[in-house]
Write a structure and sequence with these properties.
2 copies of one chain form a homodimer. By secondary structure, chain A is an alpha/beta fold. The first copy, chain A, is built from 8 helices and 11 strands. At the A-B interface, β7, α7 and β10 of A face β7, α7 and β10 of B. Chains A, B: This is Class I SAM-dependent methyltransferase. Chains A, B: Keywords: Methyltransferase, Transferase.
Chain lengths: 245, 245
Amino acid sequence: MQNIYDNETFFESYLSLRENNEGLNDVLEIPAFRSLLPDLQDKVILDIGCGFGESSKWYAENGAKKVVGIDISQKMIHKAKEINADKKIEYYNLPMEEIEFGENEFDLVVSSLSFHYVEDFCSLIKKISNVLKPNGLCIFSQEHPVVTAKKINNGWAKSETGAKTHWILDNYQEETMRKQTWFVDGVIKYHRTIATIVNTLIENHLNIQKILEPISTSDAEIINPELKEERRRPPFIILKAMSVK
Amino acid sequence: MQNIYDNETFFESYLSLRENNEGLNDVLEIPAFRSLLPDLQDKVILDIGCGFGESSKWYAENGAKKVVGIDISQKMIHKAKEINADKKIEYYNLPMEEIEFGENEFDLVVSSLSFHYVEDFCSLIKKISNVLKPNGLCIFSQEHPVVTAKKINNGWAKSETGAKTHWILDNYQEETMRKQTWFVDGVIKYHRTIATIVNTLIENHLNIQKILEPISTSDAEIINPELKEERRRPPFIILKAMSVK
């Protein structure tokens, strides 16, 4: 289990990225993710890889009855309790590999950009399926398989002038660990194909309801035209599935 | 509606490719496709884009009660009647855009590598959903969206010595026509994202059961090691969905 978020350099760089809304999360991933959410009124929600609690807080403020936020990083959970505390939220310093909640405990399990860090995806999905109520929803985003496939650090091929010429795709069927540099060296992610992701959900009684490969909001693209580059290859994939156990 | 298969040059080149088992169909697409089929005993099957009837014939020989094979190409239907006739098969020269069969007429609708030729995918899927019995299955393969996305003819980037360095991915969100050269100039295909393909099925009451991004059979890879290159990017996608109307 990787705990890169407790690395001092990584933690500070990541916080700064998120606080300045510099990343793709705010303009691309979060709006698409939230468009998939059901009415949150009175829902009991598990937020896996909650980070510093930005989304957990938002769920609490938007009608959830109870939110459980878990994260492997002690620093993140500390920060979450500091800046995104709420009487409806319980934060736990816990890796997603070790979720041990009651059967049928949650109406909704959400996870934003965490699942590409988990080695045993099938075991994770099995656990989620177990803690979800019948008809409960699992909504998660992760790096798109055309992104996690790459073994080199930067997937863009570039011209001599530095312009992006195309996205490099390779090693797609090699479902193994990928070591990358993101703020620090040795960030570990796991590549899985779209087929594996979808079929693992289905085999664990999670019925696919929608898949998104989001682009930036039009407002964001007007402010920052460079975001249009994200249309050239999908950076993220978001899946919504319903428990049919 | 495109009828490239009635082009003399295209038709002869395509037949030669298929008859010599030179293409990826035989070693990669067909084995994966058939692994998704249910027991065919007494099934009424619609085979969309049946070509020269190779698969229609196989369904008839493997228990189907009735097979309806349709294809836009008169030449293909002529050839199908000539080499793959069977008393259980009806062949019609009909474009897939114009299927007009009875409601709930089929247990199984199959289509092999045809749907990337259709412009209005949603209308096609609506028609399929309509002719499928409740709990009936739709299984189809098409070129993978990482392949249809490309605007240039060859998606492999190559080194000076001609070795494949990686697959070129670009223009992913641009869901429009692509003109390619395949035996002849001006072969028209339509690119759609994975999200669009999956969500169109779901919106038309077709519940995703499985997705495959097939690799070659191990036998074929031993005989022709070059086939391992297909692992570097998925050439095809195959979807299996069940009618839940």
